[in-house]
Amino acid sequence: MASTSDIRKGLCIRYNHDIFKIIEFLHVKPGKGPAFVRTKLKSVTTGKVIDNTFSAGHKIDDVRVETHTFQYLYSDGDTFHFMNTSDYNQITLQKSVLDAPELLKEGENVKILINSEDGLPLSVDMPASVILEVTHTEPGVKGNTATNATKPATVETGARVNVPLFINEGDKIKIETEKGSYMERIKE
Fold first, then answer.
1. Buried-most residue among 29, 32, 54, 188 (CB within 10 A)?
2. Band of the pLDDT at 100, cuts 50, 70, 90?
3. Which CATH number is associated with domain 2-62?
């Protein structure tokens, strides 16, 4: 058993007969009244996100998890196939468990949280950023790059990202996986 002081991003807890992963939290100490923790929880079984507030000192039932590195192999519709990099065992996960499946490139390494009690995978932690090649975008107009204007671009995984006007087809860009937003162009 843990308490609200142990809450951190990525912690898996049992709540309402399901297992949830904490994706955001904020400790609040108002000037009047007791402290509380405002959280955003994502169900590891359904992918549904809920908001919940725990009062300070509230006991929470945390789930023991192990983190393993897996390599993304390929997708089969809504089923994604991964291989453990240490023992080469393969597992399949549904698209709903993944946070940003559209940014996964074959061969990419991810961290998968596995429930220690039953050995079932709970969630997939993507790297903070990924580098992908732009496969389609409209050409930028010369002289129109001084503003912070953006245009849509399609990357090699099929995801659509808004990029600055100076990005062209064939450029490699770094994308933040949490927000799915452009970070920078990668020079080769």
1. 54
2. confident
3. 2.30.30.30
